[in-house]
Each structure stands twice: as structure tokens, then as C-alpha cells.
């Protein structure tokens, strides 16, 4: 393998740039050429492909977002689109790909390999952390710290006004972000998609606290919770507890941005190098990851189909700590 | 005057604790006693009044929120409530008050003085900055920096995905927070209550940018804008520009919390000392403030009835900088 | 066991308060009483021992430092001192101890158990991370992020002025802090106690970079490096490369403070609960830790005598990434 | 005037990039061309001059340092060097200059104008704030907040260990940075070049506090204080008070970097526009500034020769607040 391409795909996450940098530097270190593909599969189809050198990756390790940009591509979902993408890669002499993204990205890479034999090694780039094959995904630690920083600020005002705050954090399918936000943010309750949390339980817990003269509360809600979104839950609780002053904050897209934490820069750097070295070892359709501090490669198909479960101890921890 | 009380009232703002600390320390410095009144007028009515010493104000200068807490009080709006408040103060021997809050707080203090002759000197404690009688209010600088920090993060993801972000910042009646967020956040458009901004203008500006191949945009919306809230505005714009990917983030209560900036700690410290010294000089029903770096006292009635206008140059600046 | 004591000892680290909070809450959860011992062994000897309730641990999870304070105690190193400490504990009815600290702390606890039979379970509280028996210590992640934040700022000015910066981070005996600072900070060279790095190597690397028209460099130096401290190293390098503009920054004690990161709050919370539960299980002279995301207890003697080695892959990573 | 050049010179300061951006955008807005001159006068002599467009100033408003870099130039101090610089400007058709820097920068611009008639309008770009002709300089607010953030962290550890910390902040000739650090950082003493502070006073103040059972102290030292640097002062104090545990932290170059605060972005944006508009109005050898929230232009000669005095009220404030 003499020439590879790198791209970011799906929702951006902090540390993607650190990963791109590592891919570029590892390529140079191992004597191969590297091209940046802009806007993910969309740019692959359209041929937005540019040579990168050591300098193109300078001074980006600390930046949020992705300098290669990201996008969804309807064309790549069609056989014609993938054919075009293949021709673009051929034209640039690209023999292997590094994909930084999540399971949607890897699904595309799998199909592409079956059709055209271009191998892809992936890096887990998503803030959600619900990706089988790695303990942590690139951007997760930063997203949690960003959310926690906001929660600390909200607690200042919650305490000052004796209020109940329902804070919605990201996590459409999982509580990976919500759990450390709840434990680290000193929340009384956490509501996540993996477990059922009834409105009755929330109402009872708040009422009990109130009766013990606790006057401010924080409830962390993962956006995909089965009881509804934070606004809906707050409205129901407020209805039951009209004497309390319930407020809602939806943290939203701030959780995707910002300078990556040390842990995310470390992980992203390791993953970038591992992707390049994986391609050079002849790997195809595998994602690099760190499990128990060891580098592992997991077939894309497993990252897509297998579930990564949350440690149930953490839910117990929320209960103990909110005594 | 031998003994004074201090309280915080209305929405909390970062720097209130630094101001409380300065009130306590200045009291000790000038040889008078100081009592903390909890939960504003509510606690005054109920007698939640506690002696403070140098130590009670230790290690709070950097904290968000208010250790004295804040609340709204319906009782204080009634003659009976104020009578009770007066009796509580009498009982504790409190002869003067320092009120840290906004115009609602000062309105109450004015009436209270007329009825019972207890003088109050106020410190401008609100993140909104729309208070006549001071260039800046305590908490404003912190709120703007907090919002800007969030906007920086959102721009990371906006740039990575070619999106239009509508970001709603605080400001029910004014664009004081929105303006520096727009200028400092590199926004293309700012929408504030003080000026009319039509949806047509927004659509035109975005379309023009798009046609010049600009692909990501930030629009800052003050919550009180006449064109609607950020969700409504975004929906209207999205309808006109269906090819763009519009997203909304409402920053909300994070803007109230957090450790105060250097400027807010300085201002809060100066104001706290000025309130105590104002009381000792025999002032009553006046708010301390800084205008052109000089300490001034402004009658409460002026802070309540007069408008503080935004510098129109700043709106032009947004235009120039988004070229 | 009906009543336990908790104390912090040795250098403070961010997350100690989160751990204290977890000890308090877990005690209440499990129906036992908990006393805070101030200033470590010093306060134990002197009897600075106070009952804690749920409220004493409120609103401290986000605070740096330790509300129980820390100190060195010469008295506790003497048999008389330990006798006095034992009598104090007896007097307060304390049957077991939670010690948050490092190997010096655990050495004392071991001796104390042999002499008086008071069991101690420890939590790894040190920013240095060089403690056998846990993947990470409480405060380490925060210290690294604090250092990295400073390094990011220094790189701004290094790049603007074409300078070589020698940045000294904490680590008297190990490169645990230096390594992620180097990888995450985009440094060209890292100098740690575990490996020999000659001045010649530094000079050669910088000269080679310079000749490839690279004009700004960052060298991370662990304070305990064998080649000297950052000032000494910089002077030697400057002597060999007089045309370069070498500067030194010693980060110092800022690395000990600050609000703990999410990872440190999580770890501290888990450790605090594990210490209390460990005591209730009858453990003595063991430290709680997390290895490969599982809770483990390690005898104090092992934490004191065994080495925790740095992953040699990380040094290679610095080389690859600075290509 | 059809074409201007912009450069940064002297020590870099946060907000210089925001100012460059404003210069570029204002030039486009007013229909003139703008060239970036790299490395200040050094690059002007060597002809490191490149055309800038709207895009070259994209996404830099939040960045520390200066994308145009800065340097000292010995050549520009000679008539031959200035001749060469003039020829370079001629060659590029540059008729006016915007200089972002401090008094050294403006001195050079003055001489250059006298010799070659090229007008310069300056923006106050220095963290030190001791520049006559503006209330605040670009970068000052950020530097103070960065220092304060570090001081907050150090106070965590000072409080935990009952220590006296001597913290050295920037300020070779003035206490502008030291003063808000002391007031905002809750310091007991501040030592600045403008006033004499004897070691005896420091020793007395600490001893008095100690005797009132205060056990941790913070002393802020401006680097240019007449009593010596922080290390020297600490050694002398430690000698007199051997029972106290004195520590030193020198904040150093971190104070120059980092993302600019809202206030610095606002100021930098206003200054950049004012420089371009000043040139278009025919100004020469003047610095733009903000005094009492109004835009003013001050002759370079005044900015160089006149002193800007510190408000003596602030020193009294330190005394009152450390009661």
C-alpha cells in the first residue's frame, strides 16, 4: 500500500482533528502518501480529494470539529454513487481508507469493500460512546466534560433559587453521557433509555427530598429517554408538584464542539496511528479501539450489530450518592 | 449607623458572592456590624437573618450564584409583609440595607424607605446590563463570556457540517448580551429587541452568503426579539431556504452561573465597598455604579424609569465584520 | 462497624472532595456514622475530629483542594504520636478509617494497624498516578488537563514568535503527567525520569527541525528528569543552538488545583463508596482501585513497594506524531 | 488610499487575530485592498507580504497568538533596513499601514513616517495595559483572566495545606495585571512597581494574620516590583517567618496565550475597524483607543512619552478586602 485516504463522517466529535493529524503523521512515518477526503462519502463521490503533508496537520490537535468536514451522502447509498466514489479513488491512486466516524460510516465501508475491494480501517469518532469494540470513543470524554461544566453552572443558579432543573444531555440510544453527568454533577436522578424510569419515581424522590427540606434538585435526562424529552418530563412533574419551581435546559450542540480533553487527544492519536498500521498489516473492515488499555481491532460487522452495555454499578452509584 | 443588613434579590448573577464579601469586609473595616438576610425580601419578612463575620465571606469570591440565596416574595408586596419585614429588622437592630439586585429589587426598597425610613443602597446585580446608572452590571461580563464560550463550541460543529445555527441568548428587553456575542462570536446576523430585524433580511443575508459559497452561518437571537424566539425564527427561515440545514440552540440558564470573570469580581468588589460607604455617608435609595470608570450613585427612581441605550455603533460593527 | 473516620493526607489533588462526599454518602447509605479528621494524621493526633452528615458533603463535588485539609505530621511518625492518635479515635468511637492519599499515607496506616488494630482502607489520591494497584489515581486526569490547557496557551505564543519552549510539568519520579502532555500538546520531545534523554538528542532533534524550516518547538520536561530541571536543560540547549530563542515555563502548583474533571469525579465517587464498603467487608490495609474498569483492592504493602510502569508505546507515539 | 498593509509587532497578545480580522473585513467593506505583513518589521524588510481576503480572516477571531507572527527586527532600526522596508512596500503598492503592537512598534512607525511619508495608524496590542491613549489594551482582559484562573487553582492547594503563596504575574513596569489579580484572587497583599512595598510590611501583615489564626495567604507580585522577584521576596519572608510554609509560582508565558475574552474580542474588533477608517480619514502616526467608551485617536508620540497611572483607589480596595 502506497497511498491512502482519510475522511470523517457522521456527527462531528472533538478529537477528530487530533485523529486526522495522527493519520497524516503515521503515514509519513511509515513512508506512504495520504490524501484528505472532504465531507465524507459525499466528497468521495464528488472527488473532493487533496494531498496532505505534515504541515496540513499542524496546529490542529487542539481544535474541535473536523478540518475535513463531515456530511451525509445520499449518493453513496446508491450503487451509482459508490461506483463514482470508486472511480475517484482509482483516479487518485488511493488503495486504502481510514474512516473516522460511527456505525453508519462503517456500514458504508463494509458494502464498499464487498463491491470494490477497497479496505477501510475505522476509528471510533462519536461523542455517544455506544459503539461496540472500544471502551471509549473519540469525543466522548470531551462531551461529558462540556456537559458537566454547564451542569456546574446551572447548579449555581439552582441552589440560589431553590429550583428543580431538568437538564437534557445527548444520548439518543444510550445513557453513556447522562451517567457521568449525573454522578459528577451531583444529580439526584438520572433518566436513561436503557432503564425505565417512571414519572412516579421522579415525583416521589423529589417530594421526599423536599420534605427533608432539600430545596434544589438536578435531574439529568438523556435525550432518548422513554419517559419523553426533558420538557415533557418537567411538565408532568411540575403538574404533580406545583409548589416546586421546575426549569428545563437542553444542552444541545455545545456538547459536540470544543477543544478535546487530554484523554480524547491521547485516544485519537493512538487510533490514528492504529488505523494506518492496521491498513499496512492488511486489515480490512475493522475498527481500531482500546479495550482495557490494549489496542484491539474489531470487525465492522460487530461494531454495528453488537451492543455495548452500561455498567449497572453506575446506576446504583447515583442512588448511593444522592442520599 | 452601627449595624446593616445585606441581601441578594431577583435573578442571581455571577459576582453576587464577590459583592457580598466586599460588603462584609468593608463593614468590618469601617467598624460596623453586618447581617446576612437569606432569600431576599422573603427572608426579610420571615426573619432569616444571620450575623456575618470576616470568615463567612472567605473563599466565596470565585463562586457563582449567591450564598445568601434569592427568591421572589409576594408577602413583601403587601403592606403587612413589609410591616413584618420592618419588625424583623428592628428586632435585629438593623439600621440600613445593602440590596444586590435589579430594578424590581430597588422598587421594593424605595417603597420600604417611604414607609419605614430604612435606607437602602443598591448594587447592580443582574446579567442583563440594561440598568440605568452604571456602565456595567455585576454578572454581565461573565454571562457574555459563558455564552461566547458556548458559541465557539457550536461554531466548531457548524463549520464541520455546513449548517446555519440560530443561537438564543438571554435578554428579554435588550440586546446587551446578544451584541458582544455576535461580534465576538463571528456571527453573521444579530437580532435584538431594540431594532426591528425582518425575516426577509435574514433570508436575504443567508442566501447571499450561500451564493458566495459560504456554507455555515451563525445568527444570534436575543430571547426578547420581536421576530419571535429562536425556534420560530429558524422555522420561518428554513421554510424559505429548504436547502440549508438550520439548527437551534437555546443557551438558557448556563448563562447565569459560573465563576465570575476578573471584571465582574472587580466591579462587585468596588460596588460592595461603595454600598457600605454610601450608607455611612447617609445615602438612601441610591444605586452605586461605575460610569466612565468613576464611582457614581444614582437615585433608585432613575434606575427604574430611565433607559440605558445600546451603542448603535455596535450594530454597524456586526455588519462590517460579517462582510 | 458503626463509626468510621475519613481524612486526606499528603499533597492535595482535585477530586479529594468528591471522594470525601462519596465516603459520607456511602456511610449514611449503609447506616454507619462518619467523622471527618482534619489535616490528616496531624489532626488525628490532635483530635481535630468532627461529625459529618449528608449536608457537610453538599456542593463540594466540583471543588478543588480538600475541605478536610492536609498536612505532614512528624508526631505520627513517633510511637507517642500514634498512641495519642489511637486515644483520640477511641474517644470518638471510631473503629475504621478511610485514608485518601498516596504511598506515604498508606505506610503510616500499615504501621498504625499493626500497633493498634485499627483497619484502614485507602483511596488513591495523588495527581502523580505512579501508584501500583489502580490504572488511574484521583486528580491525575485533572492535573493533565490543567497542564495541557497551559501548554495550549504557550503554543499560541511559541508559534507567534518562533520560539523553543521548555515546559516543566509535575512528576518527581515518573513521566505519567509528562507523556499525555507531550502527546496531547503536540510536543516534539518529552523528557521523563523513566528513560534517559541526552541533551545531544534534544539538540539534534531541534536542529533537524530547524533545518526543515520548523521554527517553533515544545519540549515537555518532567520535573524529576535525570538531565536536570527545565532551566538547566534549556540553558544547555541554548548554548548549543544560540540562534534559537529558548524559553522556560514551570507550571508548578496550578497543576494541583482546579475543579475535577468528569473522570476524576467518577473515579473519586467510586473509590469513596468502595472504601466504605471495603471496611464493612472487613478489609484492612488495602487500597481500592480500578484496573481495567473493575474494582480491585490491593494490599497497602504492594502499593508501596511495587512499580507501575509507563506504557512504552506512548514514547513511540511521541516520535511518530512529531514527524 | 487603495491598498494597506497590516502587521503585528512586539510581544503577542490574545485578540491580535480578532484585530487582524477586523482590519481585513473593514478594508473589504470600504473597498480597499489589504496585505498581511508577516513577522512585523522583520518581514516588512524582507518582503514577507501576502494579499489577504475575507477568507484569510475566517475562523481566527477566537484564536490566541497572531497568524501574522511577530518578531524583533534589528534591521529596521537601521536606515538601510527602513529603506529596504520602504522599497518592499512600494513594490506591493502599499500606501498605509496598520500596526498592532505597543510603544516600541509605534516608535518605529513614527521614524518611518518621517523618513518615507508612509502613514501608520496603530492598535494597542499588549497584555500590559500600560499604554497611554486607551483605557484598555488588546489582550489585557484575557491575560488577567488567565492569571486569575491560575490563582484560583493555587488557592485550592494553599487552603488545603496552610501555605503562603507568592505568585508572580506579568508587569515589568506596572501593576495593571497584578491589581485585579489581587482583588479578584482574594489576595492579602499586592506588590507593584508603582509603589514601594517593604518586606517588613509583608512580614508584619502575614504575622498578624497568622496570630489571628489565618493559615493560608496569597501575595501577588508584579514581575517588575522593586523589592525583587517572587523568589527573592519569598526567601526573605520565609527567613523572617520560618514556621510558615512559603511557596512560589511564576505564571509566565501562559498569560500571553489563550482564546481572547469577549471584552478583548470587542475591543480588538473596534480597534481594527478604527485603524482602517483612521487611515482613510488621512490620519498618520496615531493610535486608536477607547477612553470612557468613546473612540479616540492619540498621537504615537503621546502614547510613547506619557504615563498611564493606576487608580490609587484599587490599592485601598486590596486593604479593605483583606480585612
UniProtKB/TrEMBL annotation, chains A, B, C, D:
<keyword id="KW-0479">Metal-binding</keyword>
<feature type="binding site">
    <location>
        <begin position="102"/>
        <end position="105"/>
    </location>
    <ligand>
        <name>ATP</name>
    </ligand>
</feature>
<keyword id="KW-0963">Cytoplasm</keyword>
<dbReference type="InterPro" id="IPR012828">
    <property type="entry name" value="PFKA_ATP_prok"/>
</dbReference>
<dbReference type="GO" id="GO:0030388">
    <property type="term" value="P:fructose 1,6-bisphosphate metabolic process"/>
</dbReference>
<keyword id="KW-0547">Nucleotide-binding</keyword>
<keyword id="KW-0067">ATP-binding</keyword>
<comment type="subunit">
    <text>Homotetramer.</text>
</comment>
<dbReference type="GO" id="GO:0006002">
    <property type="term" value="P:fructose 6-phosphate metabolic process"/>
</dbReference>
<comment type="function">
    <text>Catalyzes the phosphorylation of D-fructose 6-phosphate to fructose 1,6-bisphosphate by ATP, the first committing step of glycolysis.</text>
</comment>
<feature type="binding site" description="in other chain">
    <location>
        <begin position="253"/>
        <end position="256"/>
    </location>
    <ligand>
        <name>substrate</name>
    </ligand>
</feature>
<feature type="binding site">
    <location>
        <begin position="21"/>
        <end position="25"/>
    </location>
    <ligand>
        <name>ADP</name>
    </ligand>
</feature>
<dbReference type="GO" id="GO:0070095">
    <property type="term" value="F:fructose-6-phosphate binding"/>
</dbReference>
<feature type="active site" description="Proton acceptor">
    <location>
        <position position="128"/>
    </location>
</feature>
<keyword id="KW-0418">Kinase</keyword>
<dbReference type="InterPro" id="IPR022953">
    <property type="entry name" value="ATP_PFK"/>
</dbReference>
<feature type="binding site">
    <location>
        <position position="163"/>
    </location>
    <ligand>
        <name>substrate</name>
    </ligand>
</feature>
<feature type="binding site" description="in other chain">
    <location>
        <begin position="186"/>
        <end position="188"/>
    </location>
    <ligand>
        <name>ADP</name>
    </ligand>
</feature>
<feature type="domain" description="Phosphofructokinase">
    <location>
        <begin position="3"/>
        <end position="278"/>
    </location>
</feature>
<dbReference type="GO" id="GO:0005945">
    <property type="term" value="C:6-phosphofructokinase complex"/>
</dbReference>
<dbReference type="InterPro" id="IPR015912">
    <property type="entry name" value="Phosphofructokinase_CS"/>
</dbReference>
<dbReference type="InterPro" id="IPR012003">
    <property type="entry name" value="ATP_PFK_prok-type"/>
</dbReference>
<comment type="similarity">
    <text>Belongs to the phosphofructokinase type A (PFKA) family. ATP-dependent PFK group I subfamily. Prokaryotic clade 'B1' sub-subfamily.</text>
</comment>
<feature type="binding site" description="in other chain">
    <location>
        <position position="212"/>
    </location>
    <ligand>
        <name>ADP</name>
    </ligand>
</feature>
<dbReference type="InterPro" id="IPR000023">
    <property type="entry name" value="Phosphofructokinase_dom"/>
</dbReference>
<dbReference type="InterPro" id="IPR035966">
    <property type="entry name" value="PKF_sf"/>
</dbReference>
<comment type="pathway">
    <text>Carbohydrate degradation; glycolysis; D-glyceraldehyde 3-phosphate and glycerone phosphate from D-glucose: step 3/4.</text>
</comment>
<feature type="binding site">
    <location>
        <position position="247"/>
    </location>
    <ligand>
        <name>substrate</name>
    </ligand>
</feature>
<dbReference type="GO" id="GO:0061621">
    <property type="term" value="P:canonical glycolysis"/>
</dbReference>
<feature type="binding site" description="in other chain">
    <location>
        <position position="223"/>
    </location>
    <ligand>
        <name>substrate</name>
    </ligand>
</feature>
<dbReference type="Pfam" id="PF00365">
    <property type="entry name" value="PFK"/>
</dbReference>
<feature type="binding site" description="in other chain">
    <location>
        <begin position="170"/>
        <end position="172"/>
    </location>
    <ligand>
        <name>substrate</name>
    </ligand>
</feature>
<keyword id="KW-0324">Glycolysis</keyword>
<keyword id="KW-0808">Transferase</keyword>
<feature type="binding site" description="in other chain">
    <location>
        <begin position="214"/>
        <end position="216"/>
    </location>
    <ligand>
        <name>ADP</name>
    </ligand>
</feature>
<feature type="binding site">
    <location>
        <position position="103"/>
    </location>
    <ligand>
        <name>Mg(2+)</name>
    </ligand>
</feature>
<dbReference type="GO" id="GO:0003872">
    <property type="term" value="F:6-phosphofructokinase activity"/>
</dbReference>
<dbReference type="GO" id="GO:0042802">
    <property type="term" value="F:identical protein binding"/>
</dbReference>
<dbReference type="GO" id="GO:0016208">
    <property type="term" value="F:AMP binding"/>
</dbReference>
<feature type="binding site">
    <location>
        <begin position="72"/>
        <end position="73"/>
    </location>
    <ligand>
        <name>ATP</name>
    </ligand>
</feature>
<feature type="binding site">
    <location>
        <position position="11"/>
    </location>
    <ligand>
        <name>ATP</name>
    </ligand>
</feature>
<protein>
    <recommendedName>
        <fullName>ATP-dependent 6-phosphofructokinase</fullName>
        <ecNumber>2.7.1.11</ecNumber>
    </recommendedName>
</protein>
